[in-house]
Write a structure and sequence with these properties.
This protein is of the alpha+beta class. 50% of the residues lie in helices and 15% in strands. Strand 2 and strand 3 form a beta hairpin. Bound molecules: flavin-adenine dinucleotide.
């Protein structure tokens, strides 16, 4: 067992760290306030290949192993979780939907554009009445002679405002429950695809989150991804990928919060000395470091196994652990800052808000525990 990252992983992590420090951190506060990401940031990320991290070179991707991808994503999230989440959804969920399950025709048509960043991806599974119970979705895709007609509403869709393609899950057989769900790719300009207003969120504010609705939205037959009725299975397989991305996001937030807290503890003086001299503060910093390290080991193990098998349990364990760590660490970072942690003058206030959603999307913490329990048996942890 080797705990040292390989050369490829270190290179990806260093490159992403440099980008995060030079391009994201200086404007992270402004992006949070403006609730948007300047287009130049996405353009630069595209130029550096961050839109095709998991796609093979054949489609102009970087063809990274999952661990290298994870290391890069943690660093981007350390710079801005609100920028990183769209990149994660695009790579882990959307481009993988087409690459792993799409026909050769769909791969040829969309993957180069997705790898180049020309076609930003959004993933449309959740609905107003179907969140954790995603298999109970109500959107429909009725088959007609020359295509499918989509109707229904999708909630909380990341990057919807600037997406070029939408991966959409809808019922092709209403009587078959989750076995009647199919997966489609829908282009942005398709008549009948409508975007709602941007959600006013607690955190990850730069990310554009909206409702997406479909009203008699007609798409060609060839836009079916996988086979009819296979959609729910596809959604769950993709979410294993996605959870590694969100786990990396949570690690990045936790790491950033730790670094700020450590720095502040050595600068802030009370009772004539830095507060870092007090054992209560030292113990907090030690516990933060242990939790981050433990979660990072779970995330790296899940990323390593993901390239060998599906690893649902490990992906859920990694996401659950890292997201709970991010929330706990960000909370401690605010505490170490005292009153200054409660105002926008220091970034820990933002980390605290950004961390919260990592326990909600791509499966809540309760949903992760359900996946983990389903994959346990007495002799096999
Ligand atoms: C900022 C943001 C971005 C998002 N981006 C996307 C996106 O791009 N695409 C997409 O499809 N979705 C997206 N989502 C949706 C997200 O995946 C859902 O919010 C999440 O799955 C939870 O669903 P829900 O909000 O309907 O909560 P609910 O499912 O209603 O859950 C409410 C509470 O009940 C608990 N609960 C539910 N069922 C059980 C059970 N059986 N046992 C125990 N507890 C249970 C939950 O854990 C939670 O605590 C996003 C959400 C947010 C907030």
């Amino acid at each position: 067992m080797d705990f040292i990252l390989g050369e490829d992983q270190q290179l990806m992590a260093e490159a992403a760290r440099e980008f995060a420090e030079k391009k994201l951190m200086p404007i992270a506060e402004k992006m949070d306030e403006d609730e948007q990401v300047p287009q130049e940031i996405y353009d630069e990320l595209a130029e550096l290949g961050y839109f095709g991290m998991l796609l093979p070179e054949e489609y102009d991707g970087l063809e990274l192993d999952t661990l290298s991808y994870t290391c890069a994503m943690e660093e981007l999230a350390r710079g801005s979780a609100g920028v990183m989440v769209g990149i994660s959804v695009h790579n882990s969920l959307c481009s993988q939907a087409v690459y792993q399950f799409g026909s050769d025709k769909l791969k040829k048509k969309y993957l180069e554009g997705m790898a180049s960043g020309e076609l930003f991806g959004s993933y449309c599974l959740s609905e107003p009445g179907a969140g954790t119970d995603a298999g109970s979705l109500k959107a429909t895709a009725d088959e007609v002679d020359d295509g499918y007609v989509l109707n229904g509403t999708k909630s909380w869709i990341t990057s919807a405002g600037h997406a070029g393609v939408f991966i959409v899950f809808a019922l092709t057989d209403k009587a078959a429950g989750d076995k009647g769900i199919s997966c489609f790719i829908v282009e942005r300009d398709t008549p009948g695809l409508n975007l709602g207003a941007k959600e006013k969120k607690m955190g990850i504010k730069p990310s554009d989150t909206r409702e997406v609705s479909f009203v008699d939205c007609k798409i060609p037959k060839e836009n079916l991804i996988g086979t009819k009725g296979e959609g729910f299975k596809i959604a769950l397989i993709l979410l294993d990928n996605g959870r590694i991305g969100i786990a990396a996001q949570a690690l990045g937030i936790a790491q950033a919060a730790f670094e700020e807290a450590y720095k502040y503890a050595h600068e802030r003086e009370q009772f004539g000395q830095p507060i870092a001299n007090f054992q209560a503060i030292q113990f907090k910093l030690s516990d933060m470091a242990i939790k981050i390290e433990a979660s990072r080991l779970l995330v790296h193990k899940a990323a390593f196994l993901k390239d060998k098998s599906r690893a649902s349990k490990e992906c859920s364990m990694a996401k659950l652990s890292a997201s709970e760590t991010a929330n706990w660490v960000a909370n401690q970072a605010v505490q170490i800052h005292g009153g200054y942690g409660y105002v926008k003058e220091y970034p820990v206030e933002r980390y605290f808000r950004d961390a919260r959603v990592t326990e909600i999307y791509e499966g809540t913490s309760e949903a992760q525990r359900m996946v983990i329990y389903r994959n346990l048996d007495r002799k096999n942890l």
